[in-house]
Amino acid sequence: MTSVSDPISEIEESAMRELGRVSDSSQLEAWRHGYLGRKGKLTRVLRGLADLPLEERRSLGAEANRIKLRLQAAYQEQRARLEQDRVAKVTEGERLDVTLPGPPLPRGSLHPITQTLRDVLEAFENMGFQVVEGPEIEWDYYNFEALRIPADHPARDMWDTLWIDHEGDGRRSMLLRTHTSPNQIRIMEHTQPPIRVVVPGKCYRFEATDPTHEWMMTQVEGLAIDDGISMADLKGTLTEFARRIFGEERSVAFRCDYFPFVEPGMELRIDCFICRGEGCRTCGRTGWIEILGAGMVHPEIIANAGYDPDRYTGFAFGLGIERIALLRHGVDDIRHFYANDLRFLQQF
Amino acid sequence: MLIPLRWLADYVDITLPTEELARRLTTAGVEVGKIISSAGEWDGVTVAEVVDIKPHPNADRLVLVTALLATGETQTVVCGAPNVALGQKVAFAPEGTRLIDGHSGEATVLKRAKIRGVESAGMVLSEKELGISDSHEGILVLPEDAPVGEPLASVIGETIFDLDLTPNRPDLLSVLGVAREVGALTGRKVRDPSIVYEATGEPIKGRARVEVVDRDLCPRYVAALVEDVKIAESPAWMQQRLVAAGMRPINNVVDITNYVMLEMGQPLHAFDYNRLKGQRIVVRRARPGERLRLLDGTDRELSPEMLLIADADDAVAVAGVMGGAESEVTEETRAVLLESANFSATSIRRTRQALKVETDASRRFEKRLSVHLPPIAAQRAVKLMIEICGERAAQGLIDVTAGKPKDVRITLTQERLARVLGVELSSGEVRRVLEGLGFGCRWVPPDRFIVRVPYWRTDVAIADDVVEEVARVLGYDELPTTHLRGEIPPVQRQPMRELRERVRQALAASGLREVITYSLTDLPTLQKVLPPEELATTPPLRVANPMSREFEYARTTLRGSILQTLTKHIRASGGRLVATFEAGRVYLRNGNDLPHEVETVCAALSGRKPDRWGQPTGEPAGFFEAKAHLEHVLADLRVAAEYREVVEHPFLSGRTAEVTIAGRRVGLVGELHPRVAASFEVKQDIAIFELDLEALLPHVPVTIHYEPVSPYPSVKEDLAIIVDEEVPAGRAMSVIESSNLVRSVSIFDVYTGLPVPKGRKSLAFSISFQSGDRTLTDEDVAEERKRIVERLGRELGATLRALNKLRRP
Ligand SMILES: [Zn+2]
Fold it and tell me: Which residue among A67, A94, A121 closes a domain?
């Protein structure tokens, strides 16, 4: 009868020797299969233990288990080493120049006016205003008359108008709206207070263009009407808006201004962020930049809408998006916006 | 309106520094657009008094002057002026002041210096150093009453406010009107100019007659007569004021009418009394065809809408707009009939628009002047004429008016004031403000004011106008600021707007650059990009007064402007792919009503496709690149569209499809006909797509409905069929998709050539089969595939080319 200790120690020795020669994972798997697999050499020894007398079974069993643990550990170690070698080889042979660009995807963009308009509307939406829209080609009635700017009123000179060649019934004149304010009337015609809306849209003026004037512009009209809305609320709303758009640290100031459809009327100014109030070209040396016109809705307009003017008050405001975009981005000429030069648009 | 501050100071004490005064006026609604200083920059230069003069220890021709700068503050400087004397008021500049160098004439900054061994920190200035004149012989000596410590500019400089006025305030088109604002804002009394004079002539009655025929256009006409006039230059002070206020001096009589207009805001007109036929004034409408040669030398035909001033025979002036040449005051004039009238604002505005002449008079009249003003201004002018020319004034005035004009009275409640402003103000404060502005204000306990509006404020008519007066004088910034309270109105969805913004976002995300172009265009551009029949059935609206031919029509398509922009981008891109889109409205004529404004999106791309490095390859982008963007946005909207080849101007046939949903056209995609591209000066291919958002909107799901993910495995198969070349792949796709066991299908190859027979093509699809309620067996799939192939054969004449079961995940 052969000593059982010989083959088992030989198994250990040959296993370790062969493992040292293993150079890839398929060889490693074959090795594991050969020794530790279901039909592996060591497994067979262990299975054979049952046939041995108790004492021998005990000593040989302990030894065989030790070898099994050792081979398992060696296997894990070798596997880790092979994996490491493989990764190292890949990294070495297929190293990337990480400074090269990725294949460029086409980059689109929204027009800067669209971007600023969205931010402005969002600021008001967060204050409970809803966005609605109205027609760009309007009746004189909505654009002027209903806003207390009858024909032959000198205030008409504030809005140089592009008229539509319109025979029609000979009474109603059609025009390209000069401001978004006609929507005040349109909204009041079919709504009851409380009202809280902003109306964005394009407006048009008969105007020669220069660095600060365009004949087409984008405005946002605001209107809030309710029992108990005061000029203090108007100031609060506009202050909040200015800070949301131009930054928390902005100072705002209000001055009296005139628009026929509001009373009292006002203009909102923010401190010039270029000169910080010292006076520069952007602010016309005043230290302040005009942002928008506003006021309390004229009681006649409230009454014409069929609301009780003693109970309902409200405010309206109108602001030019180009001007705000100009200030935000430091654009030096308003005509850039609708010239659509690729080198200009690419920056936004 | 130019307001010289020295003139302003005649009527009100100016207690604020110039900048601060300008700020206060601006805040109160009287915008000071610009401060013009004719004195140049004298920052830091103040009035000082010479309190001591000592000889210079090292130089005979120099002295040490001690100047009193302010109470108890003196400074000793070296001075070489021969005219310096004790007790003089002089202009003193401390170190750091910007000056004109007395010798070189260059601008310089005054530095501390040792002059012949004596330290000197400052300077007593000459006129040259101040930039007033070239005189450098001696120092500038100021009037004795010049206050020590005052900025020099406030003593001798002419500072002018250039006001940007709002059209509601004609009263501010006068120095006196601005003085009233200053008085109200600074709590100072206003000194009205004197209108008292001694009339030594015969009474005017009987020697001149005024007949107002059209009372509606002339509510008041006041005339005065001044005789023995000596026409000459007006005095220097008056000329200086007129020049400072932007008017050209002419002669004493005309200058006085202009002076009073600038002072009080009432336009006046001086007629040569002896050249008025019949010494009569008739205020009437023009007769048809009547003509008049105006003061500007032009000969005008007048119309019956225009109000005229005529003498017994002929027109002598266009009322309130411009005088006629015939009755003009000349060197020979010996007697002046002075007109001070009130005309209908509307009539004046229409007349000046028709005649295309704007004058200082028409600018004031069209803003509605006070009917109280004519006699006051007339008396003021007569007084000045007597003073300046020593003439004789006829006793009395002719005053043709409908009756004494009434004061405007307004009731203002405390409740209204608080409701509008959001703050309660004390009755005392309200009264103080209103009375400061010249309003009468009576507190009627317990809760209201009766306010009398001063005659010059033709703009104040209702209680809220008075509220504004109170608020603007107190300063809007001084009033409280609160946040909106109360109910937020119920939300009303704006589906069209939401769709447009989603499309914008999706297109920008897919790599297109948004542009915004003008809504007006020209006819040639529309003709280039629209089918002639479309232009004929929907002719664009025309602008009646276009700024230029380029912007004459409201666009009915975005194609023209997007192509014009793309053309510019192509030039700037050097062959690289450029891709733009615009989302905007087109304006479709709608009978007599407002046009139908349709939200539209148009995109265009052109250039060569990029390689891995972004460099242009040889392959131009075309139909399919445009379609890719279109499909991207439609997929984003969860909309399934169909494409059908169409032939339509301005597209290239064979490369153009209409996009339809449920049989209705919602858009187009195609390559531009090269001839049309050439008309935009583009030689390369251009692909376009457009979407009519109004047509699209009903097909866009409002919300996405979740479909349960099938727990059963899907089976993928590739299927290749052979069909006639004319059969669109889209139809084969639809047939395959219509099977309810097909979860998805995609096309992955289109092939013509051997072994596919001539005139036929091979289409290869990858199909995924899946059921929601069971695991499909191979037999299920085979059966369904068989049905599909049969249908393809039946409907499209397709034959099976190959079949390959790929995998069962
Ligand atoms: Zn500034």
Answer: A94
Band of the pLDDT at B58, cuts 50, 70, 90?
confident
Q: Parallel, antiparallel, or unpaired: how do β-strands B2-4 and B686-692 relate?
A: unpaired
Residue A297 has pLDDT above 60, yes or no: yes
Rounded to the nearest integer, the mean pLDDT of chain A is 90
* Choice among B411-415, B762-766, B804-808 with the minimum mean pLDDT: B804-808
Q: Are residues A16 and A140 in the same domain?
A: no
Summarize pLDDT for B89-119 with one digit per residue, the tens.
999 998 888 877 777 777 788 888 888 888 8
Say yes or no: A77 and A119 in one domain. Answer: no
User: Which of A109, A133, A341 faces B508 most closely, judged by CB atoms?
Assistant: A109
Mention every residue, 6+ apart, whose C-beta is less than 8 A from residue B534: B556
Q: Is the domain of A187 the same as that of A246?
A: yes
| pLDDT, mean of residues A145-155 | 91
State the Cα–Cα distance between residues B396 and B375, nearest whole angstrom.
Answer: 10
Q: Do A161 and A47 belong to one domain?
A: no
CA A311/CA A192 separation, integer angstroms: 13
Both A148 and A46 in a single domain?
no
Report yes or no: B558 and B602 within 8 Å, Cβ to Cβ: yes
Q: How many CB pairs under 8 A join A and B?
A: 255
Confidence label for A287 from pLDDT (cuts 50, 70 and 90): confident
The strand pairing partners of B577, in sequence order, are: none
If one counts the domains in chain A, the total is 2
Q: Determine the structural domain holding residue A73 and report its residue range.
A: 8-94
Q: What is the mean pLDDT of residues B558-567?
A: 96
Average pLDDT over residues B727-740: 92
Judge whether A104 lies within some domain: no
- The pLDDT tens digits of the residues spanning B352-391 come to 999 999 999 999 999 999 999 999 999 999 999 999 987 7
**Residue A69: Cβ within 10 Å count:** 10
Q: Which of B418, B494, B541 sits opposite A132 (nearest CB)?
A: B494
- Give the H or E element holding residue B179: helix B175-186
Asked, for residue A101, whether it belongs to a domain, the answer is: no
Which residues 247-276 in chain A show a CB within 8 A of chain B?
253-258, 260, 263-266
Q: According to the model, what pLDDT value does residue A344 have?
A: 94
| A314 within some domain | yes
B contact test, residue of A209, A286, A298 with most B CBs within 10 A: A286
Distance CA A177, CA A159 (A): 10
B151 alpha carbon to ligand 1 midpoint, in Å?
25
Residue A9, chain B, CB below 8 Å: the answer is no
Is the CB of B27 less than 8 angstroms away from the CB of A341? no
B578 to chain A: which residues are within 8 Å by CB?
Answer: 342
Mutate to test the interface with B, among A160, A231, A252, A283 (most CBs of B within 10 A): A231
Specify whether A64 is located in the same domain as A139.
Answer: no
Which range in A25-34, B190-199, B698-707 is most confidently predicted, on average pLDDT? B190-199
For residues B701 and B385, what is the distance between their CA atoms, to the nearest angstrom?
82
Distance from CA of A19 to the nearest CA of B (A): 37
A191 and A278 in a single domain? The answer is: yes
- Residue A1 placed within a domain: no
Per the DSSP assignment, residues forming a β-bridge with B669 are: B657, B689
- Helix (H) or strand (E) holding B336, with range, is strand B336-342
ipTM: 0.83
Q: Six-digit token pair at B597? A: 């404004």
Listed range (B150-154, B506-510, B556-560, B655-659) with the worst mean pLDDT: B150-154
Would you state the pLDDT for residue B38?
61
8 A C-beta contact, residue B538 and residue B556:
yes
CATH number at residue A194: 3.30.930.10
Residue B441 has pLDDT above 90, yes or no: yes
**Same domain membership, residue A68 and residue A181:** no
What the block records as the tokens of B182 is 């200053």
